[in-house]
Amino acid sequence: MSEIASKKKIEINIIGSMIDRVTTFLEEFEPGQKEFIIPLENFGVAPRTVKEVYEREVEITVPARLHPSVLDMNRFNLDRAGGGGIGVGVQIYFHAKVKSIKEPEIRVKGERTLIVKHFGYIFKELLQYPGGFEIELYDHKRRHVGMGSSAGTMCAACIGINEVLGRPFTGRELRRILGYHSCEESPNGNGYLIRAFETGIGAMAGVNGGWVIGADDLEMVYRIDLPDTKVIIFIPDVPSLEDEFTGKETAAESEAELLMTRARYLDSMQSCVKSQLILMNMIPAMIKRDLKAMGDAMFDLCFLGSKRAECEQHGSFGAPIYSYISTFRNIGAEIAGMSSVGPTIFALTQKDDVYDRIIKYLHTQGVPESRIIETQVDNVGAKIKENGVERAFQHEGWLLG
Question: Going from the N-terminus, what domains does the chain have, and what CATH number goes with each?
């Protein structure tokens, strides 16, 4: 029998401002470890149980999300989800097949199996469910570059498990379960998980599609469709991507260090300005469906607070990232930005000629096809297929928030 690797703690120094400095730890844990399953009432969801076991199978499709900005990184930590932000669903998908079974076991295959197994145990524990699950899940394979591979995996697993159990939770409650149990694989690659920082934007965009604004404590504020909107996603070759070529599966440790230090510090000074841009510029533009005005607000946000720190980490104080964002805007893209901690850069446009010019520009720069994704905004969100019939979740009356 092979020896089980010992669990480790990753030390993270937190800097919220010049006088706010503490140390926290990312502690490794096993899927289903009960100390890492939080009771429903601890995050504002009424307790409930599912005692009956019915064998049922569903297929789930969830769009990936781009996460252009967090509002305030000082509003979340390992034990508190939140921070607010902006997200958009795109037509790049996670696929899951979930079956409820009578045996009290969690059987998983496919990809991201540690995360998927943990969420199976979470639902068993929270609902005191006596049965088990068979879950097969596949992500979009663009991991730790800002395209929400972990968030989409958790979202697809949660929706599928909730469905086969007869929908004990609403959409808002699922978002809270995901947010307060957010996790990803340990960077040590030893079969353990670590907790992750979560804004809830991935679940908002994944479940609902479209362009969404989220506030603190995982609450969705506003959402709009962006019909006929093309998306160009580009993963630039920057120094921070060295891990990609050395076979590392995750950059979780370095991401956590960034989020908890310079990004947090800059938000302590500029989150008020960012929030004003959202309230006074972004939301009115969304109401008017003015994509160009939305992009103007987004461009300003790219240079403020935590987004500035995220861009800077990719070399030369953000120059490579800002050069592409500015070029896309100069070419005519209504919206351009970097997703999450990057380095994924995106452009949204409703103009065919602008779309063609951006693609031509990337090709003239020698960008390989493998680093360019051509797609569109997903305005439908999560879909469920059962017995050959597919339906969209956001049109279901039970889905609140």
Answer: 9-395 (3.30.230.120)
